[in-house]
Design goal:
Number of helices: 4
Radius of gyration: 41 Å
Shape: globular
Region (Disordered): 36-98
Strand content: 15-25%
Biased composition (Pro residues): 38-49
Biased composition (Low complexity): 50-88
CATH class of the domain at 118-273: Alpha Beta
CATH topology of the domain at 118-273: Protein Transport Mog1p, Chain A
Helix content: 10-25%
Largest sheet: 7 strands, antiparallel
CATH superfamily of the domain at 118-273: Mog1/PsbP, alpha/beta/alpha sandwich
C-alpha cells in the first residue's frame, strides 16, 4: 500500500506541474486575452414591471395666436406710419368660443350700434383718373396732388398724403381683398371691416358713425375715429368685384390734414367693379 500511495503522489505531482505550465505560458502574439465572462442578466418575469424606456420629449410647438393685422400694413393706418411700415393685412382676431363675428362686434365698446338715425352722405364726383386693383376686381379713384402713389405691398394699391413734422399720421387710401370673414349681409361685412380698421389707428381709438349707405355691389360706411384729443375721418367700402372674396377700400385722414377730408367722399363715390 505504501508503494501505491507513493505512486499516486508522483502522478499528482506530475499533473500539478503540467497545469502550472499551462497557466504561466504567455499568450502568443495573435491571441487576445479574454476578459471575465459575465452571466447574462436575468430575464424579467412577464408579470414584473418592464424596464423604463427613454422617450424623447417633444419640443413645444410655436404659438399660432393670431395678431390683429397691421395694415399699413396695418397700413392704411394712421398710427406709426400708418401707411407704410406695418404688416400685411390679416384676418380679424380669433373669437371667444361660442361667439359669432357679429356678436363679438356688438360686444366691442369701441364700435357703437349702427342705427337707422345714421343717414346717407352726399357724394362728390370721383373724377376720371383711377387706379386698377386686379386682385380685388375693383377700381379706385386716383386722387390728385398732394396725394401720391406709394409702394402698395402687401396691399393691392395705396395712395398717401405727405408726412408732416411732429407726427407719423397721414392720410392713406388702400385697397385689397377683404381681410376678414364675409357676412351674409354686405352691411354687416362693412361693419366688421370698419372694426378691423381700428387696428390701423392709434391705440384707444373709438368710432362714431357719420354715414351708412348701399353702393352698387356692396356697402359703404363713413365714420369718425377719436383717439385722445385727436380725430381722423375714415371710410370703408366693401364691394363684390367678382373674385373669390369681395374687395375692400379703406381711406383715413387725420385732423392735421383735414383739408383732404373732402377726398373721402370722392373715394366712396368712385369705387366700382373693374370692367
Amino acid at each position: 500500500m505504501r508503494v501505491v500511495y507513493r505512486g499516486l503522489a508522483v502522478v499528482a505531482a506530475v499533473v500539478a506541474a503540467a497545469v502550472a505550465v499551462i497557466v504561466v505560458l504567455p499568450s502568443g502574439p495573435d491571441e487576445v486575452a479574454a476578459g471575465p465572462v459575465t452571466a447574462p442578466p436575468a430575464v424579467p418575469s412577464p408579470s414584473g414591471p418592464a424596464p423604463a424606456a427613454a422617450v424623447p420629449t417633444p419640443s413645444p410647438e410655436p404659438s399660432t395666436t393670431e395678431e390683429p393685422s397691421t395694415t399699413e400694413e396695418q397700413g392704411a393706418t394712421e398710427e406709426q406710419g400708418a401707411t407704410e411700415e406695418q404688416g400685411a393685412p390679416s384676418p380679424s382676431g380669433s373669437l371667444a368660443p361660442g361667439y359669432t363675428a357679429m356678436e363679438a362686434l356688438y360686444a366691442d365698446p369701441r364700435v357703437p350700434r349702427l342705427t337707422g338715425g345714421v343717414k346717407r352722405m352726399s357724394l362728390s364726383s370721383p373724377g376720371k383718373q383711377v387706379v386698377t386693383d386686379k386682385r380685388s376686381g375693383l377700381v379706385v379713384p386716383r386722387l390728385g396732388r398732394p396725394w401720391k402713389a406709394y409702394g402698395a405691398a402687401p396691399f393691392s394699391t395705396r395712395q398717401v398724403l405727405p408726412r408732416q413734422r411732429g407726427t407719423t399720421l397721414r392720410g392713406t387710401v388702400v385697397s385689397c381683398p377683404l381681410p376678414i370673414m364675409e357676412q351674409e349681409s354686405p352691411r354687416d361685412t362693412a361693419l366688421l371691416a370698419a372694426r378691423w380698421t381700428l387696428n390701423h389707428h392709434p391705440k384707444g381709438s373709438k368710432i362714431t358713425w357719420l354715414a351708412s349707405q348701399q353702393v352698387k355691389g356692396g356697402w359703404a360706411l363713413v365714420y369718425r375715429v377719436k383717439y385722445g384729443k385727436k380725430t381722423s375721418r375714415a371710410a370703408v367700402v366693401v364691394i363684390d368685384g367678382g373674385m373669390s372674396k369681395p374687395g375692400l377700400v379703406f381711406v383715413t385722414v387725420p385732423d392735421s390734414q383735414h383739408k383732404q377730408w373732402r377726398d373721402i367722399g370722392r373715394v366712396v363715390s368712385g369705387v366700382r367693379v373693374l370692367g
